[in-house]
Write a structure and sequence with these properties.
alpha/beta; LRR_N_plant-typ; disordered N terminus; 3 helices; transmembrane; 33-stranded mixed β-sheet; membrane
Length: 979
């Protein structure tokens, strides 16, 4: 009985314990369900990953949930790449048995909850590739069982916590692609089991800690794209398990340390640092090394004799250093696995690297940017697996080998920037995989072979800057995949083939600087993807086809320097235009206002056409416009005020038109304005002082208008001005002294105005003046400033046709750069500086008393002056004597006439008394005769010439001093004329 009792009691106890335990476990499972449903409420779930999360189903069947083996506890949650957004709930800390939490690759925001540090069993925490911000919680050092911590590719900031070194079980630490700063904590060296350390693409600085050698199990160390500095610590050479070492794109300096112990290293990348010295030979002997990238450093040394014993090497990248010598002789053998070789941008020289021809495995060869020369060998055909051949920017010469057509796997061929001659071999048409063919900047000639159009995969062709002749192949339309076609700067002629329109993927068409002619065909309208159209400097003619208006993707149009005519309307069909250049054609009519629909237009050049009408006010909508050139057309009216909205304009050119009105003061609001040319129009009024606010102005041309008033003082604010042209206006007043502040002027033209006053001596401070200083044809007075001698770079000086006086300063002789000088038509005097003797005499003519070569010498000038004075004195004496003698003779003649008149009077009186009888005897009437001839009534006696002359009866023409014996005159008048 007693034994039965004991057995029954024991059984009851066991049943009780089992039931208690079951209830406890059920309660625990119920708690996890409660917290998970609460956590779910903080997520936004567009993909329905939580569709089966509900209290009516077993928690262990929920999506992403992993339970313990006894199905009682949640030990894992994997919601990676589920499209979730929202924040991470602190309630995850309630899942006490959680070992793995993976919320990676979602759109979660907010902070990493510090409460996660309460998950004492947590082994893996994966939060990478979200939008989390803030810091790494300091409490994470409590996660003693943590083996994997990957929280990179977020917006996390701050420093890497030093206490991370307390996570002694950590195997993987992924902190890449964040914004961490500070340095790599030395405590990293305490992580004895760490295998992967991912720190790339942050803002980490400082040095690589020497303590890194404590991570003896480290296999992957990546800290590229940071700001690490100093040398590469030799401690890294002790990480014998290392397989990947990536320190690219930092500012590491010094030499490469000894890495000979890294026998398992497969990937080594030191690209983009400041490393110097030579490559340690032992690196090239690392037995497992597959990828070596030491490019973009300052490494040097002769690599010709480098011994590459490693047969596993697949990629060698040594570009952009200062290596010298030829190509390594032992780089490649027939058993080599070498697939990629990049040694561009060094100082290597010699012939084409023949050792490479043994590398049948080679796929990419880039030896560009060196000094390799001579011909490309025909044996290049041995590289049967070659997909990319980059030989550009070397000194290769000769012609392309025909065998290049045997590289059947070739995709990209870069040969530009050499001295290759000859024709394109027709065998190139065999390259059915060829996609990119760049031959530009060579000296190739001949026709473009029609066989090239058999390369149906071609997407890019660039033959710029050669001597190709003939026509563009008529079958070019076969290149259905062509995206980029550049044939500019050759000698191609003829029409553009109609078939070009069938290259419907074409985005860039550049045919400028050739001899192409004819009109464009309607098939241009098929090029619906065309973005860039460049046909400049050819002989195209005729109107544009209307189908061009169908090209809705055009962004750049340059058809300048042709013979196109008609309207420009077909070119404004695109609303995406950025650059628009039709310079030097024969386009006519108005500018279509639709051009302004391209709101992103930055450049409009329509100069040298036959366009007319007014400047469209719609241009004021182009807020990004920086270059507007409407020069040499027939535009009328005023500059529209709406253009004041184009605040980014840097070049405003409207010269040689018929524009009227005032120069707009709002031009002063263009802070970017560098060139303003309003010349040869009909602008009036004054030059607005607001122009002085254009602080970046380099060229100001307002010449040949009708401007009046003075030059505003504010012109001196243009301290960067290079060219100032104000000639041929009606400007007046004094030249402002503030011009001396324009220290960078190298051309100054103020001629043909009405400037007065003296030449400002401040002009002598413009020491950069070189092209010309022209102040001619004004009203300038005073002396030539001595300060002009400082203009030692000046090539032309014109001060003619003013009122300058005084001497030519001797110091001006220092202007040895002058090759044109004109000081004529002033009031200058004195010696001409001896260094000016090389100029013609016309440079000094019409002055008061300038002397010296090229004019007469000053000594001769003085002698001539004295002689002139002597001759003048003598002439004065002669004149005085003649004048005195004439007066005496006239006085004597006057006395004789008086005496004769009195005698005559007395005779007449006697005759009146006796009726023609004298002394009782009758007499005949007396007549005045000359040479036995009576004096006629229409003659008179010339006292000056002592002869008879015809005498007019007009009082206006008769001189009473010379014509005194007119028979018709009364005696009374005769007497009066002699008094």
């Amino acid at each position: 009985m007693g034994g039965v009792t004991i057995t029954t009691t024991t059984t009851n106890t066991l049943i009780f314990l089992f039931v208690f335990l079951q209830l406890s476990l059920t309660k625990a499972s119920s708690n996890d369900s409660f917290w998970l449903l609460k956590i779910q409420s903080q997520f936004i779930d567009p993909m329905g990953v939580f569709s089966n999360w509900n209290s009516s189903s077993n928690i262990c069947t929920w999506n992403g949930v992993k339970c313990s083996q006894d199905q009682t506890r949640v030990v894992g949650i994997n919601l990676s790449n589920s499209g979730l957004s929202g924040t991470i709930s602190p309630d995850f800390s309630r899942l006490f048995s959680l070992q793995k939490l993976d919320l990676s690759v979602n759109s979660l925001t907010g902070l990493i909850p510090r409460e996660l540090s309460e998950l004492q069993d947590l082994q893996e925490l994966l939060l990478f590739s979200n939008y989390l911000s803030g810091y790494i919680p300091n409490e994470f050092n409590l996660l003693k069982k943590l083996q994997v911590l990957r929280i990179g590719d977020n917006l996390l900031t701050g420093e890497i916590i030093k206490s991370i070194g307390e996570l002694s079980e950590l195997r993987v630490l992924g902190l890449a692609y964040c914004q961490f700063n500070g340095s790599i904590p030395s405590q990293i060296g305490n992580l004895k089991h760490l295998k992967s350390l991912q720190l790339q693409t942050n803002n980490l600085g400082g040095k690589i800690p020497e303590e890194i050698n404590g991570c003896q199990e480290l296999e992957d160390f990546a800290a590229s794209n940071n700001k690490l500095e100093g040398g590469i610590t030799s401690s890294i050479g002790q990480l014998r398990s290392l397989k990947i070492l990536n320190l690219a794109n930092n500012t590491l300096s010094g030499s490469i340390p000894d890495l000979s112990n890294l026998s398992t290293l497969k990937y080594l990348n030191f690209h983009g640092n400041r490393l110097t010295g030579e490559i340690p030979p032992e690196i090239l002997r690392l037995p497992e090394l597959q990828n070596l990238d030491l490019s973009s450093n300052n490494l040097s040394g002769n690599i010709t004799r480098f011994d590459f014993e490693n047969g596993n090497l697949e990629a060698l990248v040594l570009s952009s250093n200062s290596f010298t010598g030829g190509f390594p002789d032992k780089l490649c053998s027939r058993e080599s696995n070498l697939r990629h070789v990049f040694i561009s941008g060094n100082r290597l020289s010699g012939d084409f690297p023949f050792p490479l021809l043994n590398c049948s495995s080679l796929e990419v060869l880039d030896i560009s940017g060196n000094n390799f020369g001579n011909e490309i060998p025909s044996e290049v055909e041995n590289l049967k697996n070659l997909t990319d051949l980059l030989l550009n920017n070397n000194s290769f010469s000769g012609s392309l080998p025909h065998e290049i057509g045997n590289l059947s796997n070739l995709v990209n061929l870069y040969l530009f920037g050499n001295m290759i001659t000859g024709e394109i071999p027709i065998e190139i048409g065999k390259l059915q995989k060829l996609s990119v063919l760049y031959l530009y900047d060579n000296q190739m000639s001949g026709n473009i072979p029609i066989e090239l159009t058999n390369c149906s995969m071609l997407s890019e062709i660039d033959f710029f800057g050669n001597h190709f002749t003939g026509q563009i192949p008529g079958t070019i339309g076969k290149l259905k995949n062509l995206v980029f076609l550049q044939l500019r700067q050759n000698d191609l002629w003829g029409r553009v083939p109609l078939s070009l329109g069938y290259c419907r993927k074409l985005q860039t068409l550049s045919l400028g600087d050739n001899k192409l002619s004819g009109s464009l065909s309607n098939t241009f309208g098929y090029l619906s993807e065309l973005s860039l159209l460049s046909l400049y400097n050819n002989s195209f003619e005729g109107p544009l086809p209307e189908t061009i208006s169908l090209l809705k993707n055009l962004t750049i149009v340059n058809i300048s320097h042709n013979r196109f005519s008609g309207s420009i309307s077909p070119l404004v069909g695109s609303d995406l235009l950025l650059l628009f250049d039709l310079t030097n054609n024969s386009f006519s009519g108005f500018i279509p206002s639709e051009l302004a629909r391209s709101k992103n237009l930055t450049r409009i050049r329509l100069a040298h056409n036959l366009l007319n009408g007014t400047i469209p006010m719609e241009f004021g909508q182009l807020s990004d416009l920086n270059f507007l050139d409407l020069s040499s057309n027939s535009f009328t009216g005023e500059i529209p005020p709406e253009l004041s909205n184009c605040k980014k304009i840097s070049h405003f050119l409207v010269s040689n038109n018929q524009l009227t009105g005032l120069v707009p003061p709002w031009l002063g609001t263009f802070e970017e304005l560098g060139e303003l040319d309003l010349s040869s129009n009909d602008f009036n009024g004054t030059l607005p002082k607001e122009v002085g606010m254009c602080s970046r102005l380099l060229k100001l041309s307002v010449d040949q208008n009708r401007l009046s008033g003075g030059i505003p003082e504010e012109i001196g604010n243009l301290t960067g001005l290079n060219v100032l042209k104000l000639q041929r206006n009606n400007l007046s007043g004094e030249i402002p002294r503030t011009l001396g502040e324009c220290k960078k002027l190298f051309e100054l033209r103020l001629s043909e105005n009405s400037f007065s006053g003296s030449i400002p001596p401040e002009l002598g401070t413009l020491t950069e003046l070189q092209v010309i200083l022209d102040l001619s044809n004004n009203l300038l007075m005073g002396e030539i400033p001595v300060s002009l001698a400082n203009l030692v770079k000046l090539e032309r000086l014109n001060l003619s046709f003013n009122k300058l006086h005084g001497q030519v300063p001797e110091s001006l002789g220092r202007l040895t750069s002058l090759h044109a000088l004109n000081l004529s038509n002033n009031h200058l005097q004195g010696d001409i500086p001896s260094t000016f003797s090389r100029f013609p005499s016309s440079s000094f003519m019409a002055n008061d008393n300038l002397c010296g070569p090229p004019l007469i010498s000053c000594a001769e000038s003085k002698r001539q002056q004295k002689k002139q004075l002597s001759n003048t004195a003598a002439a004065g004496i002669v004149v005085a004597i003649v004048f005195t003698a004439t007066l005496i003779c006239l006085y004597l003649l006057y006395l004789m006439l008086r005496i004769w008149c009195k005698w005559k009077q007395a005779s007449i009186s006697n005759a009146d008394n006796r009726g023609g009888v004298i002394d009782g005897m009758p007499v005949k009437e007396e007549k005045w005769v000359y040479e036995d001839r009576p004096i006629r009534s229409n003659e008179c006696w010339d006292l000056n010439k002592m002869t008879l002359l015809p005498c007019s009866h007009s009082k206006k023409d008769v001189s009473m001093a010379s014509c005194i014996f007119q028979d018709s005159m009364s005696r009374e008048n005769s007497m009066r004329s002699l008094v």
